[in-house]
Amino acid sequence: MKKGWIVYNAFCYVESTAKCIQRLYDALTKKGFEISIVKHSDIKLCFDNEGDISPLLGLEKPLFCIYWDKDALLAHMLEKWGVRVFNKAKVLEICDNKGKAFFALSNNGIAMPKTIISPLVYPANSEENDIFAQYVADTLGFPLIVKESYGSFGAQVHIAEDFSKLKELRKKLLHNHHLYQQYIKNSKGKDLRVFVIGGEPICAMMRNNDKDFRANIELGGKGTPYTLNKNQANLAEKISNILGADFVGVDFLFDIEGLKLCEVNANAHFLGIEAVTGVNIADTYAQHIFNTVTNGF
Question: Is 172 helix (H, G, I), strand (E, B) or coil?
Answer without folding.
Answer: helix
